[in-house]
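All the exercises in this workshop are built on plain-text protein records. Sequence and backbone structure share a record, each on its own labelled line. The structure tokens are whole numbers drawn from a learned vocabulary of backbone shapes. The record below serves as our worked example for the rest of this section.
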Amino acid sequence: MRWALSLLGMAVLGLGCLGDRGTQGAEGPPGPTGPTGDAGVRPCVKIDGGTAGIAGVTLDVSSPINGQFFTAGEKPVVTVKVSGAGCDRLLQPSEVGTESLYVAGPRRTLAVRTASTLLNAVTDRSAANNQHHFVSLISPSFADPSQNNLALAADGTVTYTLAPVSSEVPGTYTVGVWTKSKDEEDQFFPLQDLQIGTGTVEQFASGAADASSCLSCHQALANGKVYLHHIQPGFAPLGDYALDSAPVGTCNLCHNNDGYSVNHTVRKVHGVHRGEHQTDAGVAHPEYDLPADPSLPSYLNVGFPIMPTGDTANPATAMEKDCTSCHADSRWQTSPSRLACGTCHDNLFFDTGTLNPPRVFGQPSGGACTSSSQCTSFGTFAVCNAGTGNCERQTHPVQPDDAQCGTCHGPTNGVSPITAGHFISTFNAPITLQGFAFKNVAVTGGTGPGSSFQVGDTLTLKFQLFDNHTPPAVVPDLVTNSAWAGTFLVAGPTSNPQRVYGTSGGGLNMKTAGQGTLTYDGASQTYTYVPTATWPASSLAPINNAAAGTQTNPAGSYTVWFYWARTTTGVRDAVDAQVAVAFGASQTASGRQVVTQAACGACHGMTSSGFPHLAQHGGQRKNGETCSTCHSQNALDRGVGSTGVACTTNAQCPGSAAGWEACSGGVCTVTVDPTPGITIDYQQLIHDIHFARLRDNFTERTNLGLPPGIPAGTLSYLGFNNTLSGFGEILAPVDVRSCTNCHRDTKASCSDSAPCGFGQSCQSGKCVNVAWQTPTARACLTCHDSAAAASHAAANTFIPPSGPPIETCNICHDPGAILSVSAVHNIRSPYVPPYQREKVP
């Protein structure tokens, strides 16, 4: 017994010794088969971490029987495949967060609507799951479940058979599938065309969705995203940027005459771009089936960027009248309707025939009106508001439908032709010299090595000005025609230009005796201009800042820039040219291309002749590459002593109420600088303006403002005639961190003998913009405009006993550094949502 207990104890405690293991016996018979388990799905790993990522979405539509368009009874078949990021398989609908199918068309403005019958979609806007006017491919709701539209293959391929074509209006329809990963970081919205009843392909008003006119202003080159309303975080944590990805193709799928949204794309686009000139933003217009739109009042701080901006005091001159900036076809002038016209003219109610608020034209030429007979010059329906003395439009004939719109508002016919009503007729309209161009421009006179200029050289400019209309001809009368005025400047070096030729306030007048000599040779049809002064040793002082002094002109490339402006019937336009020349050294001269004309013109408008519609300073300056000629480092806006309009009392001076302007000697004179120390240095000016709404305004903290127009302490500049212009509401239409939208590559061919302009680097034989990657306090403290940022820059700047300050920005922010400019502004990978449109208190 004791022995047995001992063995048991050793077995339980594992304290005994085991002998050698014997040989393994033969394998026994297999056991019974167990129950079948789930097939299982291998997790799909995102390329940049996480799961259920989406690499791409393919969308296909079957071909019609006749090969051109679907006819009644045919059932188009839609195929959707969602690829997993970092995986070699398709994703099941259950693995993604959103996979929704839309169909809408045709593409005519008054005809486009969700093809709900074709889609078999629910149309009840009060549906419990909010699934109406589209079908979720994850958990679908159908108007008629018996159709069995949806089929899911084992590999994840989704096949959706649309209902038979029936009563759909013939035309081009758009099929789209909105797809998002569960974490919403990956978003796609591919589109396909679907022809029904006709082989004639229709286009969207803004052009093909993948080449839309919207993209020129709203697509960020840094990440390819399109910055419209839905990209803003809010309803979705990262914003629904896919909804904006292919305008107006994706837009029309929800915003149509009977879609998921009750407000049409036309209303959204016209209202937002009318912006600050909306007169009754978002008000309901039941006469053309639009309910109230609460989103539009939030865009009252938007200004249309086509330049010039017109007279902001008179919305009738607003540049959103330039319909061709957005419209790729002629429907804006050939297809007037209450919807299309009323969404810009939002104060016009066609059912009652009233304008509320009325359209104010101003006082007639003789002063305040007392009777409507004095207002006839403003149109048939203009009446006098005796209380204000202004002529107004208060009524419009009642229009129960669109049948008569074209009668009064044809393209060029009727009481008020559309083209005439949308003609931009302000003093600085940018259209009269389209087709004019300088040719055979040459600058000579350099006596240094390689014909470079030296101090004391006489510069000679030769050129021809061609009118390229039919038949092309040289303009022969610049010397004698008083409608033409020429301006000449030289500035450099291109690395940091200061004016070399000019006057204290700008450039040389090419027709003013004492500043230079202009002649015309009829035989060669060539103009010659020779400035009176020879090439100086030092630059001119910066604009409005004589205290900054001059600088010795260093060797390098300099820019010769000249422009001719023509004023006719109250309209001014200009055409310009620039030539790079070498000074102080034998070198191949190149211009300054930190920004390019194409970059500015992408948003501000570009003529068919290749000139941007910048048209500042009375319509004369249109070239974004040459603004730094006058807007140089240390240049300031106007200050104390600047004169403005004529006056007899202080009350007649606009700045008097704010305490910075008074009537002195019959002219309004600045007595206290309302914008102390505010620079008009180009790189600071442009950065400031394009991010103005979200800046901290540390630099402007002591600005005086001009109540009630411009709040104190906000971005503003004192300019011509002491006009204080406020820019506090401006915000770039893309994420401002997409630096390359403005700092674009010229992509010009380059070599040692054909160098790129300053700001560009020759890489693989093409010019690439590198200017935006160079950190300086001068540039960075514009967007990063806070007291803390200013302190940071100051702490990293060494002030030596003599010589210029030495910045150490490059230690942390140079290319390749841990906080390089490109790294700090990275919004591509991982995707960075945009900042809020409005400043957070």
Summary: The longest strand covers residues 556-568.
